[in-house]
Amino acid sequence: MSDEIKKDARNPSEGPNGEGGKLGSNAEPGVAIEPLFDYGDITERDKSVVNEVIEFLQTRPGVPSEMLIEELKEKFQLVTIPMMNMETSIWHQLTKDERIGQMSQGFRQTVDKDGNKIRIPHIGFSADLDYLDGFINRLVNKISALPTEKDK
Question: Could you tell me the pTM of the whole model?
Answer without folding.
Answer: 0.56
